[in-house]
Amino acid sequence: MKKSYKIEVDCANCASRMEDAAKKIEGVKDASVNFMLLKMKVEFEDGAAPADVMPRVLAACRDIEPDCAIDF
After folding, report:
1. How many domains does the structure of the chain reveal?
2. 1-44 pLDDT, tens per residue?
3. 69 pairs with which residues across the strands?
4. Between vectors from CA 43 to CA 41 and to CA 44, what angle results, nearest 5°?
5. What's the rounded Cα separation, in Å, for the pair 16 and 19?
6. SS3 per residue for 33-58
7. HSE (CB half, 13 Å, CA atoms) of 17?
8. C-beta of residue 44 within 8 angstroms of C-beta of residue 58
9. Where does the signal peptide begin and end (predicted)?
10. With CB atoms 3.0 to 4.6 Å apart as the test, which of 1, 15, 58, 69 could cross-link to 35 if both were Cys?
């Protein structure tokens, strides 16, 4: 399953680091962050519930940029 989310990120470098961090989260098969569009696309592993995975993705992103926000 793939989903797209609105993300608040301040710089392109941080967006790249957030993309890498999201890919390491259990339940995430693939992730991409588009800094220009402020969008995060996440492909979830089979059986992974987005409602369970996305709080962990947000926490990983906030380790990079504390004021990051993801609308999920």
Report:
1. 1
2. 999 999 999 999 999 999 999 999 999 999 999 999 999 999 99
3. 8
4. 135
5. 5
6. EECCCCEEEEEECCCCCHHHHHHHHH
7. 13
8. no
9. none
10. 15
In which domain, by residue range, is 13 found? 2-71
Task: Note the pLDDT tens digit of each residue in 34-54.
Answer: 999 999 999 999 999 999 999
What tokens were used for 9?
């990120």
Residue 68: burial class (beta carbons within 10 Å; 0-12, 13-18, 19+): buried
Q: What is the CATH number of the domain that holds 30?
A: 3.30.70.100
The answer, as to whether pTM is greater than 0.90, is yes
> What is d(CA 27, CA 42) in angstroms, rounded to the nearest whole number?
10
Please give the Cα distance from 57 to 45 (Å, whole number).
14
**pLDDT, position 68:** 94
